[in-house]
Design a protein that fits this description.
The protein is α+β, with helices and mostly antiparallel strands and about 350 residues long. It folds into two domains: about 190 residues, no CATH class; about 130 residues, no CATH class. The chain is built from twelve helices and 13 strands. The chain has a seven-stranded mixed beta sheet. The longest helix is centred in the last third of the chain and has 20 residues.
């Protein structure tokens, strides 16, 4: 059921209203590609985009981030945590990336609570835009059950056909949170949905279900068991012979959350900062421990580890898949290693 219907111009006006009190990050065209980037007004966004090269993850979990400052003095060693609590709005987020953010929410709020992530997340308002068709070739978000986002956005917008009154793009809006409801209703944007709007929304859902192909010919809930039986498969070694261990798959992935920490000292050696930066399990140095021992020295072991995390271990630990089927890892891979091909080849073996 729809909560509201807004035109694209009305949606952009809502974004401009958000920009009065929040930093805006959304899809921006650069040459012939789109990236999530900061803008100061809504007309700089391209809400008709199909595919962003990277997800908006960096807005919540920066690639390089200061955790705390420290200094020594007469009173001893002192530290001061650094949190970013500036209000943020992520606009134009597709379902796959909304589901990726939901996973990050679970990871950083369960077991080891990460206040640096959560301080940003609490101040973030998400405007989702649904995909009527696959955003680009090679995506398998339907297979990973991530081409829909029933929760995770404050407001979720789905394109509707024109109503004959105006050529402006129309969106059916569903409120995902109380904050989303209050913001839209307080702004008096759009109109209550009519019976025709509800029917159009039902047709949209039906058409979308037919538009997304199935790339994995079995239910992905079976992937954990499949991988459990494939630990010693020769496929890992055969596929890893093409792997350059460059980490492009990790750095382009919206659900990878591994990081390394290091200290940055001032020249006086009496003060500095603790930093964290993204790390990737495909890098040769990722699993190096004390004594210079690398317990994943072979590329095959690193490849198997990544696939297991995405389709087995994260699912078993967090209850949601560690892969949302956006295929950014496949597109970024210089060796053209495909996750879908690995899943399907393992299934054939078993």
């Amino acid at each position: 059921m729809l909560d509201r219907v807004v035109s694209q111009s009305q949606l952009l006006a809502l974004v401009d209203e958000l920009a009065l009190s929040r930093r805006i990050v959304g899809p921006v065209r650069r040459s012939d590609r789109h990236f999530y980037g900061p803008v100061d007004r809504a007309d700089k966004l391209d809400l008709d985009f199909k595919y962003c090269v990277y997800s908006p993850k960096a807005a919540l979990f920066p690639a390089d981030q200061t955790l705390f400052e420290f200094q020594t003095g007469p009173d001893g060693f002192q530290t001061s945590p650094v949190y970013d609590e500036s209000p943020l709005a992520l606009v134009g987020v597709h379902p796959c990336d909304i589901n990726a953010i939901r996973l990050l929410d679970r990871v950083f709020s369960n077991t080891n609570i990460d206040e640096h992530y959560l301080s940003r997340r609490r101040q973030t308002f998400i405007v989702g835009i649904d995909c009527p068709t696959p955003c680009t070739s090679g995506v398998f978000c339907r297979d990973m059950k991530a081409n829909e986002a029933r929760e995770g956005a404050d407001i979720m917008c789905s394109p509707l056909p024109p109503n004959g009154v105006s050529d402006d793009v129309r969106y059916g809006v569903v409120f995902g949170t109380d904050a989303g409801r209050e913001f839209v209703l307080y702004s008096h944007a759009g109109d209550p949905p009519t019976v025709d709007d509800e029917r159009a929304s039902e047709r949209y859902i039906s058409d979308k279900a037919r538009a997304f192909p199935q790339s994995i010919p079995y239910d992905v809930d079976a992937l954990p068991e499949l991988l459990e039986r494939s630990y010693d498969s020769l496929l890992w070694e055969a596929t890893a012979r093409r792997c350059y261990s460059c980490g492009s798959c990790n750095l382009s992935c919206p659900t990878c959350y591994c990081f390394n920490t290091y200290d940055r000292l001032e020249m006086t050696l009496t003060s500095g900062t603790r930093q964290r930066e993204w790390d990737g399990c495909q890098l040769r140095s990722f699993a190096v421990v004390a004594g210079d021992h690398n317990f994943r020295a072979k590329a095959a072991a690193r490849l198997r580890h990544r696939i297991y995390r995405k389709a087995k271990w994260v699912k078993e630990r967090e209850g949601v898949a560690g892969c949302v089927g956006c295929a950014r890892c496949d597109r970024a891979c210089t060796a053209k290693i495909s996750s879908v091909e690995i899943y399907n080849q393992l299934a054939e073996e078993v």
